[in-house]
Specification:
The structure holds two protein chains of two kinds. By secondary structure, chain A is an all-alpha fold. Chain A has three helices and no strands. In chain A, helix 2 (42-63) packs antiparallel against helix 3. Chain A starts with 5 loop residues before the first helix and ends in an 8-residue tail after the last helix. Chain B has one domain: Four Helix Bundle (Hemerythrin (Met), subunit A) (Up-down Bundle), CATH 1.20.120. The longest helix of chain B has 31 residues, at 87-117. The chains are: A mainly alpha, B mainly alpha. Chains A and B meet through helix 1, helix 2 and helix 3 of A and helix 1, helix 2, helix 3 and helix 6 of B.
Chain lengths: 107, 186
């Protein structure tokens, strides 16, 4: 906390919470707009995954204060988040293509 | 935590006790394997997973996400307050964080009771086995986190608070990945 004032640190934590809460409401709202019991739209899936990555970064950088660590640590945790979410998204896309889940996806 | 300067190499750059970061990395790898396993099950049995997800409540999952991120914010505010010398304020923030953790477990209990009433148990099919394993394992971490927050609220040096709050943020971080993968990606 040597390079920022206590008040600025407090504001940064409050902003991080606002981003986390806002993205949660956005991703839940996007998911609830879809019809019950059917596949989610590609748009709402993208919103959910991007929101998850951004929220993960907020927790790491601000709540866990990874900003104080070197770029190597931040890169490692970002890469881990990307690998987990990216793998799950790739497998999700594969399952949709395999099962014909999105009829509107074709050319 | 004894005030001596220890050389943890690259781990020394990280806030709080370096061993907590080893735990955070380990937990992310373990849960990451769970999540990728779940995605493979979706690839192999898409209709089974879609049917299972249809029985999940997105609003309850979203509510629990809001509860956890707010709890994480309070834990971060507790560390901030303690670093400024506000021991009483930091304990109040920690108590709020722990209370919200109990709120998360209550919502999870309501969700489990609803699924049990519908006859959806751990042996129903692979989706429900993974659902209960992942969310149950995470809920156990929430219980452990509440215990850790209580301990560091009592022995509340700045380093102890940073370390305890780091565990809590790790629990938060895992839920932020689990929720969209299990509840939202249908």
């Amino acid at each position: 906390m040597s390079e920022e004032t206590s008040r600025a640190h407090g504001r940064r934590l409050n902003r991080a919470w606002a981003v986390l809460a806002g993205l949660t409401v956005l991703s839940v709202g996007a998911a609830l707009l879809g019809p019950d019991g059917q596949r989610a739209s590609l748009g709402s899936v993208a919103v959910a995954l991007v929101a998850s990555f951004v929220k993960g970064r907020q927790v790491l950088d601000h709540f866990l204060d990874l900003r104080r660590a070197g770029s190597g640590w931040r890169g490692l945790f970002n890469a881990l988040l990307l690998v987990i979410l990216g793998s799950c998204f790739a497998l999700y896309l594969a399952s949709m293509l395999r099962s014909g889940g999105w009829s509107a996806m074709g050319p | 935590m004894n005030g001596e300067t220890e050389n943890w190499g690259a781990l020394s750059e990280l806030p709080g006790n370096p061993l907590m970061w080893v735990l955070i990395l380990s937990e992310m790898l373990v849960f990451g394997a769970f999540f990728i396993g779940f995605a493979v099950v979706r690839l192999l049995h898409p209709e089974m997973v879609l049917a299972g997800q249809g029985a999940l409540s997105i609003p309850l999952g979203g509510l629990n996400t809001l509860i956890l991120v707010t709890s994480g914010w309070l834990a971060a505010r507790a560390v901030h307050a303690r670093a400024e010398g506000g021991i009483g304020r930091s304990r109040l923030f920690l108590a709020g964080a722990g209370a919200l953790g109990l709120g998360f477990l209550t919502v999870k209990g309501v969700e489990y009771a609803d699924k049990a009433a519908q006859g959806l148990g751990i042996e129903t099919d692979t989706f429900w086995t993974l659902f209960y394993l992942m969310t149950g394992f995470h809920a156990l971490h929430v219980v452990m986190g509440i215990v850790v927050l209580s301990i560091v609220g009592w022995k509340n040096s700045v380093e102890n608070l940073e370390t305890g709050a780091a565990f809590w943020h790790m629990v938060d971080l895992i839920w932020l990945i689990l929720f969209p993968l299990v509840y939202l990606l249908r």
